[in-house]
């Protein structure tokens, strides 16, 4: 979710990334995420114009849902945005003895089975919940974890905005994981998978900024969306298992999040282009199922419109996707800073 630049926003940044962060880092474990959800909900109720923009996009995906239901989902998306935006405040505090205060994991047995078999794992995830929280926790467990990133959204920021972005990157660097640029060659990730390690990569669009890697147009929730298929490329080349994963508010304890690793997908063989085409079909199905079930946990409803996440006739006439697959740029843009 992207909010416009303003002097007031810079004052807010100074407060949040300075004394606000220091205060929250002294709070009880896990409490800060519950606080950000509450703050985000309040902003969602107050920001009428932005909320209306999100509702308009939600109606594209869920035309049969009434306005009250879409209003509720829209407010939830603000809460999700705030938790994700400031999730990194906790990354220096999360440790092996306390990570369950922030997250509950389901499906970890898939990781243990792959490691016992000496196989790598690609975790293909949408941007739901605090998207980097499962990454951080897997690293805290001592697992060899990698994530593909690709830079910031193309938004002109003030000096204070650039300082806040640098602070975010500094806090994210506290995660015991290896971060890779999606703008570079991915041979190192293929080698990591062949060595039995774990790679996280996104399976949805990211909205704004530069698209990286091979994307295929598929229908998601009734709309043509450009989906990255780098996860399928990496799994095929790295002879690794491919598991979808998502992170949402824990229905058993709404003060924390749930990360669920789903059963492995069939990557199959044949030419890499055929693998990616099949992967695009299956990614659309998986993404539609997750977003349909947990719409309030997705970060990019404000970009769910033609010309941004959604494909347009003009884009198709330009050739569809950017990139030709292969080993360069088959990733996605990184989490970036989409608001504050």
Could you outline the blueprint of secondary structure elements for this entry?
Elements: H1 7-24, H2 31-46, H3 48-61, H4 67-85, E1 103-106, H5 108-116, E2 121-125, H6 133-140, E3 145-149, H7 159-172, E4 178-181, H8 187-194, E5 198-202, E6 215-220, E7 223-228, H9 230-237, E8 241-249, E9 257-261, H10 272-293, H11 313-317
Parallel strand pairs: 1-9, 2-5, 2-8, 3-4, 3-5
Antiparallel strand pairs: 6-7, 8-9
Helix pairs in contact: 1-7, 2-4, 3-4, 9-10
Structural account:
The longest helix has 22 residues, at 272-293. The model is unreliable at 318-340 (pLDDT under 50). The chain has eleven helices and nine strands. The protein is globular. The strands form two sheets. A seven-stranded mixed sheet has the order 1-9-8-2-5-3-4, with helices on both faces. Helix content is 41%, strand content 14%. It is of the alpha/beta class and 340 residues long.
Report, as a whole number of angstroms, the end-to-end distance: 9 Å
How do the helices and strands follow one another from N- to C-terminus? HHHHEHEHEHEHEEEHEEHH
The profile of the biggest β sheet is: 7 strands, mixed
| Poorly predicted runs | 318-340
């Amino acid at each position: 979710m992207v909010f416009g630049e303003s002097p007031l926003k810079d004052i807010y940044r100074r407060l949040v990334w300075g004394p606000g962060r220091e205060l929250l880092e002294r709070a009880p474990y896990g409490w800060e995420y519950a606080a950000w959800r509450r703050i985000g909900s309040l902003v969602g109720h107050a920001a009428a114009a932005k909320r209306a923009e999100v509702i308009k996009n939600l109606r594209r995906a869920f035309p049969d849902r009434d306005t009250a239901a879409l209003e509720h989902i829209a407010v939830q998306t603000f809460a999700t945005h705030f938790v994700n935006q400031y999730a990194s405040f906790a990354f220096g505090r999360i440790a092996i003895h306390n990570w369950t205060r922030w997250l509950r994991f389901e499906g970890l047995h898939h990781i243990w089975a792959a490691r016992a078999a000496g196989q790598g794992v690609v975790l293909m995830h949408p941007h739901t919940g605090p998207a980097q929280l499962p990454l951080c926790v897997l690293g805290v467990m001592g697992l060899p974890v990698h994530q593909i990133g690709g830079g910031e959204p193309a938004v002109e920021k003030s000096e204070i905005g650039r300082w806040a972005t640098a602070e975010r990157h500094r806090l994210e660097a506290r995660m015991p994981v290896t971060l890779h640029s999606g703008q570079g060659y991915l041979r190192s990730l293929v080698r990591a998978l062949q060595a039995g390690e774990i790679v996280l990569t996104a399976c949805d669009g990211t909205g704004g900024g530069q698209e990286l890697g091979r994307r295929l147009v598929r229908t998601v929730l009734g709309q043509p969306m450009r989906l990255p298929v780098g996860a399928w490329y990496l799994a095929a080349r790295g002879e690794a298992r491919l598991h979808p994963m998502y992170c949402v508010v824990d229905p058993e304890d709404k003060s924390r999040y749930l990360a669920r690793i789903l059963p492995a997908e069939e990557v199959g063989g044949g030419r890499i282009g055929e693998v990616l085409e099949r992967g695009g079909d299956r990614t659309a199905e998986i993404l539609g199922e997750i977003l349909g079930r947990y719409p309030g946990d997705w970060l990019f409803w404000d970009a769910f419109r033609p010309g941004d996440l959604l494909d347009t006739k003009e884009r198709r006439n330009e050739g569809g996707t950017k990139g030709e697959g292969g080993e360069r740029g088959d990733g996605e843009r990184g989490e970036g800073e989409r608001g504050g």
